Amino acid sequence: MSDRFTTHGAFSWSELLTSDVEGAKKFYGDLLGWEIEDMPMEGMDYTVVKAGGEEVGGIMAMPPQAPEGMPPHWGTYVTVTDVDAVARKASELGGRVLLPPTDIPGVGRFSVLQDPQGAVLSVITYAPQGAGE
Q1: Domain CATH code at residue 11
Q2: What is the pLDDT of residues 35-86, one digit of tens each?
Q3: Rg of the Cα trace of the chain?
Q4: How far apart are CA 36 and CA 29, in angstroms?
Q5: What is the DSSP string of 6-65?
Q6: What span, in angstroms and rounded, lies between the C-alpha atoms of 89 and 16?
Q7: Number of C-alpha atoms within 13 angstroms, CB side, residue 19?
Q8: Is 26 inside any structural domain?
């Protein structure tokens, strides 16, 4: 596993939530030369994007629980050693937990946080054989 998937505080993954997965795959593939690989996951379709053969992010359909009217957007994941502890600490520091710590089968455990200024960031602890192996 690469350091970005194990180092606490490292930016490790970027993910596009979109209403047009096929359009996004074509756009970004053509724009950035990304290799596009569909990867079915439990309960959903997922597309992994690669740069120079390395997995760097993903593209997925807007999830059904997304707030109505939420526009397509890129999200960023930061690796942490303990998602639950970081979510608690975010609340203590004046942030909000938008999505409580949740397991992603075969990938790890993540949470979506919002800082006191309103910026959103996802934190994740990868399973030993998740994310890019």
Answers
A1: 3.10.180.10
A2: 999 998 877 899 999 999 999 999 999 988 888 888 999 999 999 999 999 9
A3: 15
A4: 7
A5: TSTT-EEEEEEEES-HHHHHHHHHHHH--EEEE--BTTB--EEEEETTEEEEEEEEPPTT
A6: 26
A7: 7
A8: yes
